[in-house]
Structure formats: structure tokens, C-alpha cells
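Q: What does the predicted 3D structure of Integral membrane protein look like?
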Amino acid sequence: MTRYFYDCRVRNDNVVEISRPNGDEQLEISFKRTVRIPDNRDKFNLPPDMGNFPLYKTEQYAQSLPESIVAKRGIFLPMYQLEAMWINFEATAPFAVKVYAGSINAVSGQPVAKSDASKVHPQSLVSQKASVQDYVVVPGQKWLDGFATDNGLVRQFVATKLGDGYTVEAQVTAQEVYGGLQIEVTPAVVTGQDRQSPVQASVKTLHSLTLHIDNLTTVEDLKKEIRARECIPEDQQRCIFGGKQMVDHATVFSYTGGIKDAAMQVVLRLRGGGTVPGAKSMEMGLAAGGSIKQVIVPDGYPVATWHKSATIVFNVQLLDAANFEAVTGLLAPETPITMDTYAELGLPFFKLHEHPSGVHASFEQVKSVGEMIGTKEQTVKVPVHHINKPTAVNVHDQPRKNTPDTKVADITNPAGPLEDFRHIAELAKELRLMKLAKSDDQEDSDGQGD
């Protein structure tokens, strides 16, 4: 399969842009400030857009951030305790987007495979009616306001400090390892590029190697070849060209320009160390708030649509206001207005006419912040503005935007995705196999009891 390299950068207008150089494929992701809806049993329409959260590149503040945050690269933004947010998507081509709040998938409710909790949760899916889809599809999904807890409902994203036990990550896994957000974007396959003739390149490890690469050779392919020749594990290799670390899913040519005898260097990624003291104290995570009427659009694309090996990953760390000011020397934005003030001003919420899709998770063990602290907030009535624009939009109607960024920098996480991307049909097949295995185990157990 043809591989493509995508740029991932944060623009001056506080939008994360993922785009293919020399192509029209582009995804824009922004993180929206909004009012926190009442935390009770009522179901609310879509809260308003109160502007983008300001985004800051971690590499620009590396000297004042913990190493554990800097290692992920990406971006950070300031939030207040119990402040709400929603995520906005705009795209000119199909993309599948996974959203992790800490180590928990916001659509499927499942912890990442690397966690201890994941050993239990896949089996629990067998007896649940929740959908197996663990990503949103754009264009189609315009917004994500929270955790997909029920059919046509999400629980609002609300920021809380790590360590208090309120985050969804803490409730599902009994620990808070990740915090913040991790966004994993899988683009659609793009056709029309042929393999070119290979050129010679040199790689300096402990020895000097001569390799032959072409326009489709990725950095990951390069690492595999180095492992075969030098017995250096891939996860210990850092490939450098022109003083810049090369990202695994990128093509080597995207760095070297395809020049002959390009000289690259491999340095070892040393293990050890540990969490920097105070790292978790400045970070925040996402808890569940009140319920919002929102449908998760099902994936209607065929399995072959998605370019699984080209997933782009970036992290969004959430800093509380005090630590944000200490790190940046900047004042945090003012707190958003309360729901009461919003209602007093006569401002509306928004209703989009959608049919339930059945795509949601099972968050039965997860409680909202209000449920955990034992409070039930009063419902505040606001006018409702009906949105007639359909959720699914025509990708060809979306003009490509170009907002110059004078400090362009790659913000992808070099560690890659928490889990490999799988189409909904592949996830459903795995679930069927688990059900068969469970049925066989039950029959064996019954037979032994005879």
C-alpha cells in the first residue's frame, strides 16, 4: 500500500491542522470553550461555542515543563477546575479520529490495550449492547462534546485535577497514568502514486551502513532494516537527518528530498529515569459532566478506505490556571461565564436533528462529578436554536484553508498510537470470535459438571 506523510502543526488561530503536502486532504481540530451544563439527570441540547482554547507547543516551553510532558511533544492548553470543553472537526477528505481521555477511549469506553484494565474490558463487551466502533468519522462528525455514554447521548468533558479520583480514567482503571487527551487520526487511502527507482543512502550507527531506499520507504521500514543488520531493537532507535528526529510513519524522502547519498544518523534511545516530581500535580484530566444530546456518526466506509499504517498522533496536555501561568509567564484566560449568567443573557443552546445511530459505549461504572460529590445542580432553561445544516457534509464543498504559521513545527507524538487502528467490521469480527470462545468455554464447563 502506498504510504503518505502528513504534516501535523498548530496554527496561529489555535487550530491543529493535519494535511498532506502537495495534496488537498486536510483535517482541522480545535478545542472549544463553552459553558458547563448542569450536572443532573436532564438531557441538554448542544452548548455554545465560546471561542478556541489557546494552544501552546510543548517544545517552546521545554525548560519549564516536566520531561514526561515534553517527551510527548504536542501541545498544552489552560483549563480551570470543572471547566468544560468540546472538540470541533472540519475536513476536506475522510479521516477516522480516535479520542482518548487519559487512557480511555471516549467513544468505546475501553482502556488502552497496554493497561491492566484492558484485560477485563474486552470480555465485558461480549455481554454488552454497546457498539464496537471506537472512533469518529469526519466529515460527518462535526463535534464531540463528551464521553459517548448512551445512544444519542454524551457526558460533557469536564476538567479535574489528577489525583482526586474524578477522571473517567481513574474510575475505569483505578489509576491516572496518562491524563490529558491523545488524538489519533487515520487518513483515507490516497491513490495515484507509483514507486520510484531506489537511491543509495548512508546511515551511521556504530558502523556505517549503505542502504537503498525509494519514495515509499518509511522511517519504520528503515528501522527494521537497521535491526536486521545491527540487531538494534526498533524502539531504541532514533533516526536523525539534518538535526531533526524522523517520525516512524513518514517517508524517508520527506526528510531527505530523495537526494542520492543522503547521510542519516541513528542514536540510541536510552531507557530509565522515571516521572519527574511534580509532573502529575500540574496536569489535569477529563471527568464526566452533565448529559448532552449528541449522536456519534457510524462509519459507513468500507474496510479498505482507511490507511492504517499512516496514523498521526498528537497529545493535548491540560494545565490548571496556576501552573499554566508559572510555565508560560502568561495570564490564563478569564473563566467562562456560568450557566446562570448565560441564561440571564437569553443566549441559546443548539439542537441538531439527528437519528440515534447506536454508536456508544458502556460507562456503567462511571459517575459524573456531581454524582461523586453528592450534588445535583438545578436545571436552567435557555432558548433553543435549531440547526438545519446536516451533520454529514459534502467534502467537495469545503475550501482548503491556509493560515500561515511563522513557527511551523511537527507536534506528533513519536511513540505513535496507543492501539493500531481497526475498522468497525474488524472490531465486530473480533467480538464475534470472543463470543464463540466464551460459548465454547461455557459448554466445556457444563460438560465437566455432568
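A (community wiki): The C-alpha cells above were generated from the sequence. The chain has two domains: 7-190+276-428, 199-268. The first helix runs from residue 67 to 70.
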